[in-house]
Amino acid sequence: MSSTKTRAALRVSARVSGELLLVLVMTAVALWLLGRMWSVVWPLVVGLLLTTLTWPLTRFLRGRGWPPALAASTVTVLFLLVAGGAVALIAVPVASQSGELADGVVEGIQRLREWASGPPLNIGDDQITGAFDSATARVQDSVGSMVTTVVTGVSTVVNGVVTAVLAVFLMFFMLKDGPRFLPWLARQLPGRLATDVPTVAARGWDTLGEFVRSQAYVGLLDAVLIGLGLWIVGVPLVLPLAVLTFVSAFVPIVGALFAGFVAVLIALVSNGLTDALIVLAIIVVVQQLEGNVFQPMIQSRGLGLHAAVVLLAVTLGGSLAGIVGSLLAVPAAALIAVVWNYVREQLVEPGEEPEVQTAPSPVGTPS
User: For labelling, which of 271, 306, 316, 345 has a CA lying 20 to 30 Å from the CA of 351?
Assistant: First the structure.
């Protein structure tokens, strides 16, 4: 072995390792700062996602000569009406059939008790009563922890309401003044940053729009397939359950589990155990197709990411930050890809064409 080449290789390895370590440290510091400011960052992220969803209509109205404030106000009110209508579409039919559902729950519990008392379990009433008394005693012993859990849940709900209100206000201001942001940002930055940062921000805006639209497509596909299955089985409240499935598609993992649990519960109390198992099978099949086929294909096509990258990003985001990480993993990966592609474009030698796709025109520019 050549001692000169060996020393050179070691020096290069040491330099690269030191630079990589510095990058990792700076990334850890940035993530720590992000976590400290999360109470402000999270409403901003939700507001951005809502803005990408409602911006096409706002752009259409502004293109027809509407003043920015009027267009933003109209779209915000329409968004609130649609959101409220979706909630009413779910809540009103459920409330109107709450008596039947309650009777079904009581009947389902009685059927379960009768089934448990027969073979092969042969659980007698005295055993059931003993188990109920034991469960009651455990509940009484854990009142303190239950109170803590309830308080934590109330605090979470309050924080969610505050986040939603802030996100709606931020959405209005972004719809109203969003096109002014990039020119303002360009005037604040020195030198080449005045060009680079607004360009990356505009491409990131397009990427967020693609993410929100792809999630809407996936949610609509889930709602249609699951709603069709519920209608064929004969489960009541098909339309509210389909709407709930569509809305819950924007919340990864927990949204699908919650919507599926509600559908199976209603099928159980209204149609019986057999139909509930059929509904469970339908939901599992649709969710598997959505998670492993439809969502990676749609998001990879819209965001310019490979389907495997989408799956790995969701897995990594969920393991690092739970539900929020799963929700933000795909757009974060897409934004990283946007930055990387732009850096490659800037580092390419003059006269060479970078092998990247041409980014669409910025949505945030004035029309």
Answer: 306
